[in-house]
Amino acid sequence: MNSNRLEQGLQKLHEIDGEAGQAVINSLQHICPDLARLTIEFPFADVYSRPGLDLRAREIATVAALTALGHCAPQLKVHLNAALNVGCSEEEIKEVIIQMAVYAGFPASLNAMFAFAEVLEGRAG
Fold this sequence. Notes:
Elements: H1 3-17, H2 19-29, H3 33-47, H4 55-69, H5 73-85, H6 90-104, H7 106-124
Helix pairs in contact: 1-2, 1-3, 2-3, 4-5, 4-6, 4-7, 5-7, 6-7
């Protein structure tokens, strides 16, 4: 295991997701610590740390992809929070979700918007 890569991934994870990202990692530790490590190293050390897109753009793309997939509500909620954490506005996120109705269908967009409502409620209280 490359501890430098793990540390770089953990730093990026905390920058983007804060406690929500760490909760995902912690939830994997008892069943599959290797998947927890890979979830830190590949996405956060190898991909999110690349130049070319800032974190806002990366989270917009991630929210769009998870909305389009339509079956990733837990991951979508983490990344909706992350998008807000890195500077996306509520309006921008709503527009991304609406845009996905064209390409992923209304059910996927409706589910994503309801997930976003839950995220906003959680952040408010």
